[in-house]
Amino acid sequence: MPALTFVAFGLKVGISVNDPALLERLPAYLPYGWSPAPDTDLDRSYSLLMPPDVANGHVYELCRDRAILLRSGELDQVLDVLERDIRWLLADEARDWIFIHAGAVGWRGRAIVLPGASGAGKSSLVAELVKAGALYYSDEYAILDRLGRVHPFATPLQVRQEAQTSQVRRSVEELGGHAGRDPLPVGLIVSVLFRPAAPGELLRISPASGVLRMLEHIAARSQPHQVLEVLTAVASQAPAFAGERADAGPFATRLLTLLDSQLDDG
Known about the structure:
alpha+beta; Rossmann fold; 2 domains; 6-stranded mixed beta sheet; 5-stranded mixed barrel; 18 strands; globular
């Protein structure tokens, strides 16, 4: 069958289809930074099939290593599941990378890392930081190499209105911003939750607490010693803060000012 094979973050993935037209839809759902690769020694294989359904026209069937993940008549839904599953694969098995559930932006040659669970308000805060001039790195994963530098994972932002549940994909260009390209050392670790009417308190926490805030949101549990070593080194060099926020716009400006003061003070 026709197939698309790619490599991303050291892992090789193949996706086969039984309708060549489906290949045209796949690139938009592949991980940031992917590149074509030979179809040998795959770490994971998927198939996206369109078997005929006599009663209901066509349904789409997504399989991972021959196990069925989803059957649906909605192609967009199937592609969303494929996209999420590939990201989970990378986060769990990429050997030389650490994936933290976190937003990340660049400012004055340093990265601001915003660890947090889904619904914590990462995307809306990242969007406001980008509007304020920060470089966009990610609203889903802060990806660290073994030196503790943050690399871009500049997928479209999943922006939701605060206190709303629905999300809309927005490119960084739609927000008037730009994506970062170069790896950056971490300048700030900020663990913050969105809460309506929060006073916006932001307290500095210890390096050990900063490590714990990042560990809470590590996507993979493999290689724990390497992960702990890298995060400890990051937290020993970058100050960590925790708190709550209400409106993302003023808080974004506050974070950039905070990093400015850290850099200006040396």
